[in-house]
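Question (not urgent): is this output format expected?
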Amino acid sequence: MAFSYNTAAELFPAAIRKKKRAGFAYRRFDTAADAVLFAIEELPADSLNGAYLQVDEARFDQTGIRTLYESEDFPLARRAPEPVDDEATEDKSANAA
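Got this back:
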């Protein structure tokens, strides 16, 4: 069965552990693509850990959400990777010599 990124989705925070709240509250999205993008690009890593995405009857944990994001079928533009600071890399190389 093919996954539909156009289906509505719900993103649930991690369970509360030792009275420590997750970094976000439950959110509903018009599309699973929007939910996946939000989870990967906006949530802090500790909030994504333990959270899950529900699309229809299917549930996706952190690994499943990342797999959906990295899929060739993912329909939205992904955030560009952070540029590498070449000067900082050169400085470290020069100091090591």
